[in-house]
Amino acid sequence: PTSAARAREVHVPTVVAHRGASAYAPENTLAAIDKAAQLGFSWVENDVQRTRDGELVVLHDESLQRTTNVEDVFPGRAPWKVGDFTAAEIARLDAGSWFSPAYAGARVPTLRQYMRRVEQNHEKLLLEIKSPELYPGIERQTLSLLGNEGWLDRRHLGQLIVQSFSADSVRTVHELRPGVITGYLGTPTVAQLHGFARFTDMVNPSYGSLSPEYVATVHAFEGPHGRPLGLFAWTVDDAATARRVAGYGSDGIISNKPDVVRAALDGN
Ligand code: G3P
Ligand code: CA
């Protein structure tokens, strides 16, 4: 069974560190996934985009502005879109100082660097293909890199989920590599679920759109691998919401503060 299905059997949601343990270290950096590992979490979430010269990098926003010093290093290149910069240019940026001086010098990782650190840390990855409409072919490219890094091998079965807000992107991933576990980000209608269940193993909604009935509806569908659709809710950072969403039957909770969620679910 998937981790989601396993989690459901014992009614303990999987806790996923959102953009790494991003309340405590700068999001989507190697420091953030190190922090997740230090806190004892094996699942991390990230966001993948592409540079002007075709390198896959890990960053949430379409612009480098919020989470790097790009304005200082490259003034005059507003709006500082990831896709307008080369990998070498992005590698020069400080992606840690905006968060805290303690993280000065943290970099925007390439996906290759990121996957190697995930492997070293014995972590598991919920990989989001972000804004795929901006990056034609990013699904094939991402799968190719994952394959080269060994992440499509049997030893990594159950340790990787590829998700997107774009149903087309999720479908493309499933068609290219049917063995990969996939997730659709959003709250599809029942009518949509009939179609989506052909290519997605999971439906991962914002917690604000959830109800116990909706979780049960999602679970009643069977995904492309013959198992009930899984459901991870995002982004839950407080104890009361974590308990509520777990009570709805969510298989996972995605959090910037995974330690807070775990403590809440342990009853602490
Ligand atoms: O993994 C769920 C969550 O990351 C989706 O929203 O905007 O944080 O990428 P966002
Ligand atoms: Ca994300």
Automatic annotation (TrEMBL):
The keyword Signal applies. Keywords: Signal. Gene3D superfamilies: Phosphatidylinositol (PI) phosphodiesterase. It comes from the Bacteria. Residues 13-265 form the GP-PDE domain. PANTHER family: GLYCEROPHOSPHODIESTER PHOSPHODIESTERASE, CYTOPLASMIC, GLYCEROPHOSPHORYL DIESTER PHOSPHODIESTERASE. This is Glycerophosphodiester phosphodiesterase. It comes from Streptomyces cinerochromogenes.
